[in-house]
Predict the 3D structure of the following.
Amino acid sequence: MVHRLAAVCLLIGRSTYMKSHWILGAAITAALALGLISCGGGDGGPAGPTTTPAADGTVLTIVSGETDSPVSGARVTVDGGTFTTNSAGQVTLPQRPANMAPIDILAAGYLDRLTVFRGQETRLSLWPRRSPTGLLESDTVYLVYTHVNWRDGVPPLLQVGAAGGDSLRQRYSRAPVQVFYSDGFEGADSWAIDNQAAAVAELNDAIGGGLTYVPPRFAEIPAANMGELHVALTIDPTHASCASGFVATGEPPPAGLAGGTLRVNYCSVRYAGILHVAMHELGHTFGLRHTADSNDVMSPGSESQAFTPKERLVMRLMLQRRPGNTFPDTDVCRWRPSWCLD
Ligand SMILES: [Zn+2]
């Protein structure tokens, strides 16, 4: 059930947004891959009343990605047939779909999900259009799918028309992210050093266990294995962004298999000591983009020192999707089948 991929590093892009004096999002390497994801499967369970159970029928269970509770009344289309989930969120297919067979799931209150059948994954989650956390569809667009590249000199946050144009940046591997103090941190004030550890702790708390950032340490940065990511923390006033008035930069992960080192750079030791700046840049390394809500840590110019409930929810939802997923909720295998041949 591991899928592979064709992946190539594409570009280095720069995404910055200037407001008062800071921030910015990212440089990028993009490589696409697909991978395992957390929707573990369980076959079995009662047959839905709107389906005709077959002895060897495959049961799909549709759940909310936010609450994990079953979604009833969802319309599931697979193999030319359309089925409606019962009160247990389940449909029983008359026959087992072929591997990689398209599955469309439409349900009120959730983004339309287009995915494919992967043998073991029979429990499929849906991404809420809005939630009690305050999450709106627009938050999902901005935080997850905003196009991160500058275009014609325009910062990404101002490219309203580009919203939703990019794919989910999450790496394939769920191995812990190693974080290293690197150039500029030797001899830095202890509060700047300690601040990085505090920001990592805040990020881990927000992620909720689906992925772990290892507390930063002083060590030689080893080469990353395929699928692994490291984060290098640096203080370098000569970084190109600093001359433009930014205080820090954070690189997002590639959307796939490629491993490597993402850099978080501070333009001075003072900025390295500001908690919300460190949290924001680490948020970029997780794959978060910018939002327009000033309460969010990921809002440029925000001084929030806690990821908001909707940011926390978005991170959990992102970990339920493969890298390369596109807005509204389309599996990369649906638009680039050649990457999913097995
Ligand atoms: Zn940013």
Remarks:
- The radius of gyration is 21 Å.
